[in-house]
Amino acid sequence: MGPGKLLIPVAAAAVILVMAGTFLVQNDECKTIEAEIVGAGTFDSYLIDVPRDAFYAGGIELGDRLVLSFPDKTCYAYFICDHSGIASLDMYVNCYSGDQDVEIGIYDYQIGLLLDYGAGTKVSIAKEGGKADYFDKIPHYSAGYSDEREDFGSAQEYGNYREVTQGDFKKGRLYRSASPMQHNGTRYLYCDAFLREVDADYVFSISIGMEDVEGYRYPGSYAFSLYDEGRMVARSLNPAVLCHEDEILFVMDTVLDLEGSIGISCSQGKDRTGIYCAMLESLAGASYQEVRDDYLLSMCNYYGIEKGSIEYDTVGSMVIDRLFYIFQNPEVLDDVTDVDWSIMDIGGYDAEGIVTEYLLGIGMDAGRLEMLKSSLRDSQ
């Protein structure tokens, strides 16, 4: 069900009272929404007390630019649904197609690091005018993806699985996929079959903790045969990768310490897995263009985006280009909503140099970093 089906006509100059929020509507345009934070939302966001339908009824549409006035800070955000169609490190007001919850967050970031508010904090939300610059260029990315096999051209696209081969990456060292355990449709079965086909030595799950693995067990699973042999590492890592330096170091150390072929996965194999594989590819000597193309291949697989299209390059600039800009300039995370993304120069990105300096900067031992690079590269 698309969000557009939820639109509710409203009379001009009406006043709508919903829960604790007060909405002043004039000329079918929402002028202000007075909301209150009521707790934690998903992905390190804040849940507010205003329901989804009140935004649609007030004339707010997907992609609209909003002004959020907190007690001591004013921010800009975009209105989205199901976390689709938003750029990394942009603030959002997210609703859901399946329920009435609305959340305020920052994509790929922990909002509490920038705005440390608790339940009861008031926030005024107003329609600023205009939409995100990228909104009309990303129709497939905004529409979301399917968990049904018949909606994909191949099992490989559906499972988003492949060997990591960029740069001088050692053949048979690393494979990436959606989870071979978590049930996103039947995707897990195809990913498990892929790991069996390549005879992976280890499963490295970054979306399930070891304490929860047994709950996903199913008969005939290759991943669980490795688990039974002590060849699985599983830890649920935060999707806001940049905010968790300890988890980044954990991934680098784990890949170094596992001698043999590794199948790495998160729930869908595109976000957390995509970022960590981008870092590892960089350390294996891949060019930034190689890293970028492999990251975006997951977007092509999931959303049907065509390589070389305007949407392809727009999504690249919204996500992976921004993440590497942060690797290159980690100090801007202190006030990430004020970053001027127009100054990014991806043509000047030295992927290996950027990731190397970043890892050293967050405390990775230089000797272990060089060992990791050697372990990833083909010695021939």
How would you characterize the overall build of this protein?
The chain has 12 helices and 14 strands. It is of the alpha+beta class. It has a 7-stranded mixed barrel. A 5-stranded mixed sheet has the order 10-11-14-12-13, sandwiched between helices. Helix 7 (272-283) packs antiparallel against helix 8 and helix 7 (272-283) packs across helix 11. The protein is globular and about 60 Å long. Mean pLDDT is 91; it is low at 1-29.
User: Which architecture name of the largest domain does CATH use?
Assistant: Alpha-Beta Complex
Count, helices: 12
Query: Would you list the SSEs in sequence order as H and E?
Result: EEEEHEEEEEHHEEHEHEHEHHHHHH
With strands numbered from the N-terminus, the spatial order across the biggest sheet is: 3-4-8-7-6-5-9
Regions with little confidence, pLDDT below 50 for 5+ residues: 1-29
List keywords for this structure.
380 residues, alpha+beta, Elongation Factor Tu (Ef-tu), domain 3, Protein-Tyrosine Phosphatase, Chain A, 7-stranded mixed β-barrel, 5-stranded mixed β-sheet, 12 helices, disordered N terminus
